[in-house]
Amino acid sequence: MSAQPQSRDTAARRWRGGYAVLYLAFLYVPILVLPVFSFNDSIFVSFPLKEFTTKWYAQLAGQPALFDALANSLKVAIFSAVFSTLLGIFAAKAMTRYRFPLQRPAFALVMLPLVIPEIILGLSLLIMVNRIGLSLSLYTVSIGHVLLCVPFAVAVLLSRFEGFDRSLEEASLDLGESAWMTFWRVTFPIVFPGIVSSLLLTFTISFDEFIIAFFLTGSETTLPVHIWSQLRFPQRLPSVLALGTLLLVASTLLIILAEWLRRRGIQPDKQPDM
Amino acid sequence: MANSDAFIDIRAVSKRFGSVTAVDGVDLAIRQGEFFSLLGASGCGKTTLLRMIAGFEMPTEGDILIDGQVMTDVPANRRPTNMVFQNYAIFPHLTVRDNIAYGLRKDGLPRADLDRKVDAALEMIKLSGYGARRSTELSGGQRQRVALARALIKRPKVLLLDEPLGALDKKLRETMQLELRQIQDEIGITFVFVTHDQEEALTMSCRVAVMAQGRVMQVATPRELYETPNSRAVASFIGTMNFFEATTKGIEGERLLLDAQGLGGIAAPVPGWQVNGKAVVAIRPEKLQLSLDRPQGEVSAAQGTILNSTYLGDRSHFHVRLDGVEAPIAVSAQNVERSMRDDLDDGTPVWLSWRDTAMVVLPG
């Protein structure tokens, strides 16, 4: 484009380039603040930067409460991801494979928690749990998270199930396979990527979730609730930043892993049993 | 219909979905090694019938026997049938090779034997060297052939084909028609082929069952279907047909005397059905001759005017208005002469003529 006279076309292209840069900056600069200040030798989050340090990371190791909260969050997130994805599979299958009365209203009700404010959900769950007489614990948090995650799981799985051609299963039966083998050789490998992305999404939602966890948590807190409690102490802020950086790295790795799994899932199988 | 030569014996089979009757009391006897087509417009029940043979649907009434065995309680995965699906149903997560080998898992063949079989199948469908390809990288025609190989490698007694050529373009469809015929000739298994394309059915089949509204209208060879349809519905579904309402006047030896609208008093061969008053005379467009002067000799003739004409290279199509007939009469004429003649302008008075044997008399 060097020798060309400035045309409207290249001007427009520059504008678009500038817009894209601003757009990405808007999205990522706030997030990049986290790692930058986590290595800054000052308890104040302000410029100019001071010396490079890893002491905030070292400090993390000395906080057993943090590791407890992390373990709690992992437990809750795994439970919520598995259960909401299971429920999502049943719902998505019901929506795409069968026709039944009141299907549309039923579907709308399943998706409704997506638009109910979380604070309302949290409050009503708290009232409910108290009325039933359950004591607040990681179980009550998990139940709340399953409720929150199901519509996301359904949304992800539905797109996969909708694209699933029923005649593939018929073809497998026709070629002599039983219903069970058909599920393992055809249905599962094809919907597998959807299941992985549903597990990943719901895991992330539960892991990050604060409001419902805040309402329903007992003596054992999840990580977001723990972080929130730490913000009362200004001197702990840098180690919270360090923690945030680690979480950022971990979730990035998780997404790369899920994507790798997804691609692997649609590779031809090597037919070990043949 | 206890037919001794029936390989697939369909006995009084009906299928109802709720209040809708998809297949209504069908009796069919399909012979071994036959290329048999189920032909009809969409919704006529042909696919439902095929799916009942495959075992995907259960008949509401009646029984289906294959090679003397009642199939009613046999699930799809135990039937000696394999199917080529309308959309091919190629497994998207498997390679071409693994798609073709899919149905052989249970046979527990040694690796080498399996490879040999799959290689032979790939060769048959002219896709050697495509084995490692992802099935999603194939063209429509290639997918169709993979679906065929995948079904045939099972050595089924019956191959079921559900409009397998519908998604292909015209040229490819014609090639595949030929290939399917060749493969069927070579391996000699029974093919049951569902199509809505009457030309396809006529080109490929040994016999055709024409279906409408869940019933079988006629079962016949392509030639019989075209030349001696048994009803107005079949006659109009297969090719183009001109119809003339008629009243019967009596029988004179081998000939039936009729008075037909637009044609006048005519004599046609006596039909196989009981004649009682009303009838329809049917004549194919290519069995009508056009001429400017009244034709001489052993032919019947009627006078009309040209409505319009279409030049198609090898032949020309005309529509002719006959007095007393509402629908324009279709006439097809072979362009025998290399002539630039264009003397059959719209509005030209012409004579239509035909031999007595050109006429088919149908129930009115």
Rg value of chain B: 25 Å
Kindly state the percentage of residues in helix of chain A: over 70%
The radius of gyration computed from the alpha-carbon positions of chain A, rounded to a whole number of angstroms, is: 24 Å
**Straight-line N-to-C gap of chain B:** 28 Å
Q: Mean pLDDT of chain B, as a whole number? A: 89
* Oligomeric form: heterodimer
Number of helices of chain B: 8
CATH topology of chain A: MetI-like fold
Please indicate the count of domains of chain B.
Answer: 2
Helix content of chain B: 10-25%
The pair of chains with the biggest contact is: A-B, 25 and 32 residues
Please mark out the parts of chain A with pLDDT under 50 across 5 or more consecutive residues, or reply none: 266-274
Spans of chain B with pLDDT under 50 lasting ≥5 residues? none
Q: Strand content of the residues of chain A, in percent? A: under 5%
CATH class of chain A reads Mainly Alpha
